[in-house]
Structures are given as structure tokens and as C-alpha cells.
Amino acid sequence: MIRVLFVDDHEMVRIGVTAYLSAQNDIEVIAEADDGKLAVELALLHKPDIILMDLVMKEMDGIEATKRIIDQWPDAKIIIVTSFLDDEKVYPALEAGATSYMLKTSKASDIANAVRSTYKGQSILEPEVAGKMMKKMRQKNEHYLHEELTNREMEILLLMTQGKTNQEIADELFIALKTAKVHVSNILAKLQVQDRTQAVIYAFKHNIVK
């Protein structure tokens, strides 16, 4: 049996989901909590296989409860079950150590399947949440690209944003035209863009131009 601690401050939600989960042959709800503070106590007391965690609750919210549980029990598997999809809830919850992220609008059967999958070591994310995480990862990767530029390449990129040609860049920096062209080629390669226009767009998008 997969032992579950269910944390939610809405009694009707707990009753409904608990009834469905308890009817499964492989899942047992061993304890319930209506606030984060009690959730931490019960989690450390019972060490359940899975914790279903609401986010917005009195006494202590789900994010803080998740942090405290993970701090004291790093192997805990926590599934966030909430109505919120905004960034200030999603990212902190996952960064706090939550394994999976579900919405309360999900079918009870989907939550049961998430319990099974998370128990097996998988991470289950709502499609909208997965999309947000992929977008954030892409933004981090893009931000990292221009950090690979040398000081000279960054200087040339700034001149490119001013519309300077290779010859004008060479003249202004007192370098050979061939050297300027090499620097520009290196910049395009490091930023993973195809031409100068895309490099300039990258510079403005990432606030490189002051």
C-alpha cells in the first residue's frame, strides 16, 4: 500500500479525494491535516510514502511546510495539489522540494495516478506547469549565453547595437577589419544566432544595452 498524508484546509476537498484514494487497492490515506504546521508534524511522525500538499492555508502555507519537511526529511515525496498556476506559487513550491505539481481541477483518478507515479520516482507536472518550467529553463540558458562573451566581444556587441558596420567597429577600436569580422563571427556563434540582427535583438532582450 502507498501510504498518503493529505493536507488541505478545505474539508470537503479532503473528504472527496480521501474517499476516492481509499477506495483504491494500492493507496491508503493514513493521516490528514488542514494546515501546514500540522502537516510538518504528521509528515515527520508517520513518514508517509506520499504527501499531497495544498498551498494556501492558515497557520503555515504549503510552500513553507514543504521547505520544513524537506529540510528535516530530504527523501519526502511531496505532490502539490492546488488551484494556483501563477509563477510566485509554482516556482517556489518546486524549488522548496516538491516532486510533482497538480491542479485541484484534475480528476481524482489523475491525482491517484500521480500518487502512483511519484511513488515510483517520477515527477508529474500539469501541462501548464511543465510549459512554465521549460520557458524558465530556456530563459536561463539564453541568459547564460552572453556571459561567455569576452570583454572585447561584449564591447563589439554594443557597437553592433548602434548599427556600426564591421569597418566602423574596426576603426573605432583600432583593430584590423579581419579581426573585427572574427569577433563578430564569434559573437554570433556564442549567442547561437544566425546574423547581426538576431544578435542585436538578443542584446536588447537581455538588457545588455544600458
Biggest β-sheet: strands ordered side by side in the sheet: 2-1-3-4-5
What is the count of β-strands?
A: 5
Strand content: 5-15%
Q: What is the general shape?
A: elongated
Annotated CATH homologous superfamily of the largest domain = Response regulator
- CATH arch. level architecture of the largest domain: 3-Layer(aba) Sandwich
General description of the model:
The structure is a single chain. The chain has two domains: 2-137, Response regulator (Rossmann fold, 3-Layer(aba) Sandwich); 149-205, Arc Repressor Mutant, subunit A, CATH 1.10.10. It starts with a strand and ends in a 5-residue tail after the last helix. By secondary structure, it is α/β, with parallel strands linked by helices. The protein has helices at residues 11-22, 36-46, 62-72, 87-96, 108-119, 127-145, 151-161, 166-173, 177-191, 196-205; strands at residues 2-7, 27-33, 50-53, 78-82, 100-103. It is built from ten helices and five strands. A five-stranded parallel β-sheet has the order 2-1-3-4-5, sandwiched between helices.
SSE topology:
Elements lengths: L1 E6 L3 H12 L4 E7 L2 H11 L3 E4 L8 H11 L5 E5 L4 H10 L3 E4 L4 H12 L7 H19 L5 H11 L4 H8 L3 H15 L4 H10 L5
Parallel strand pairs: 1-2, 1-3, 3-4, 4-5
Helix pairs in contact: 2-3, 3-4, 7-9, 7-10, 8-9, 9-10
